[in-house]
């Protein structure tokens, strides 16, 4: 399963399917966030959601050129507007950071400097038995762990490409190699 059957949460004004890819240019002041630190809730980011049946592994390749604070692109898994995770590259303090925001009523935010080409990377999300495993890859072959955490059990999930620009419009993002299938079931330190 790939982009087929996907629907937009906050459809951007400028987007198109390109062969096996999805091209998006972000609208102004788009974001996903709930309350923590900033005290506001935003549910305006762009998310191309494909519905799964139960547990899954999804992955996507992301290409973008980040310029402004909080420019971000990656993958989202969503149960509801109050229960979701977004992960990817986000520009913060002038450098591209690998970033994840887990939201269960309120958002957290975890970042670390990304030591590879932030303009071209892969993300993988596995949800199985109430656990979320996020992995990031610079080459689509080796998949180091990015985050492991509890995640709500659900009969279905929405998963797919996500991008936001809270401070501007105009981040151009190309998503490709998007797949969703059964959970991989690999050992935690199996990086393949």
TrEMBL record:
Signal peptide region: none
Transmembrane region(s): none
Gene3D superfamilies: 2.60.120.200
Family annotation (InterPro entries): ConA-like_dom_sf (IPR013320), DUF1349 (IPR009784), UCP022704 (IPR015987)
Protein name listed in UniProt: DUF1349 domain-containing protein
Taxonomic lineage of the native organism: Bacteria, Pseudomonadati, Pseudomonadota, Alphaproteobacteria, Hyphomicrobiales
